[in-house]
Write a structure and sequence with these properties.
The protein has 123 residues and is α/β, with parallel strands linked by helices. The chain contains five helices and four strands. The longest helix is centred in the N-terminal third of the chain and has 16 residues.
């Protein structure tokens, strides 16, 4: 697999989030949306990356930073990036923050905890 890395440092900071059906998927999705609203990065289309949509692949290649946010240990976002040929990215696994699939309703406190962890990875 080819490694895609931009050395220019001026591209966008992209966030690919699991948006799965579980509560932790919702938390991952809402974390990416929060980071986008506040200008920490830009949520980008994980499905388009998985579908190898050329424009999405090219934009991801030019990113100055890439963050995958996964809700559960299945790590669909991380695996999608890897399958698309990307190896240089940060990864936030919400289970590592203590969030458990099926037991983590979305709250403002949980959203802020996940966003804090994600911000640290986008630096």
């Amino acid at each position: 697999m080819a490694e895609h890395v931009c050395s220019c440092g001026s591209g966008p900071r992209l966030i690919f989030a699991c948006s799965g059906a579980a509560d932790v998927g919702l938390l991952a999705d809402q974390t990416a949306r929060k980071l986008t609203r506040e200008g920490s990065g830009k949520m980008f289309c994980l499905a388009g990356l998985g579908g190898k949509v050329s424009g999405i692949i090219e934009t991801t290649k030019s990113a100055s930073a890439v963050l995958a946010i996964d809700g559960c240990p299945l790590e669909c976002a991380r695996k999608t990036l890897a399958e698309a040929g990307f190896s240089e990215y940060q990864h936030l696994q919400l289970a590592n923050l203590g969030f458990e699939k099926g037991k983590t309703p979305l709250t403002d406190e949980r959203l802020e905890q996940a966003a804090d962890a994600a911000r640290g990875l986008l630096q």
